[in-house]
Amino acid sequence: KIAVLYHGFCADGLCSCIIFNKGIERLLKRKIDYNIHYTVFEITDEIIEFFKKNNITKAIFVDLSLYAKEEMIKKASETVDLLLIDHHDHKNDLNSEKIIFAHSTLVNNKIKDSAYPASKLVYDLFSEITDMKDLDWLACLGLISDMGYEQWKEFVDKTIRKYKAKKSEKIFTSDFGIASSNISTSKRFN
């Protein structure tokens, strides 16, 4: 069983989760078992127990900086195989036999990690192995919400034109910017 845990109340986190789900569906012809709106920035004993109770064998964390307690990441890897896809500041390479750490700087060290949000990272990783072109707009929503627009301006602008969406001088007042803001605004309503 597979669980995807994503940064809750965040357009980048939600878009990363959706793109990951669609990528798995296309590659493995199956759905993810659990999608978890996760608001804790560390792996907890409670989530490890959830994995055990529900027979989760693979846990994917997208857009979550879990690095405050690296020992908990290692503890979780004793129960499940982990895939961490993230772009937040980190100190150590967490790759091991049971952990795949796909950090933006490990994928492309020429781009500042904060400018390579998880939604674009997940989109790019899956695009290497399957057609994801119809999900470009989701990567754009995540990019806009996490301040990646300037780095990926050409990609976002091209995608806005592709869908004939409204473009504005200020990206947050474009159709994509408004959609991105609406997702992030959900935090106000929990």
In short:
With 190 residues, this protein is an alpha/beta fold.
Architecture overview:
- The protein is α/β, with parallel strands linked by helices and 190 residues long.
- It has helices at 11-28, 45-53, 70-76, 104-107, 118-127, 136-145, 153-162, 175-185; strands at 2-7, 34-38, 58-62, 81-86, 99-103.
Total of helices: 8
**Secondary structure tally: strands:** 5
The shape is globular
Distance between the termini: 28 Å
Can you give the mean pLDDT? 95
| Strand order, largest beta sheet | 2-1-3-4-5
Order of helix and strand elements from N to C terminus: EHEHEHEEHHHHH
The poorly predicted ranges are none
Q: Fraction of residues in helices?
A: 40-55%
What attributes characterize this protein structure?
globular, 42% helix, 14% strand, five-stranded parallel β-sheet, 190 residues, alpha/beta
What does the secondary structure layout of this molecule look like, with pairings?
Layout: E1 2-7, H1 11-28, E2 34-38, H2 45-53, E3 58-62, H3 70-76, E4 81-86, E5 99-103, H4 104-107, H5 118-127, H6 136-145, H7 153-162, H8 175-185
Parallel strand pairs: 1-2, 1-3, 3-4, 4-5
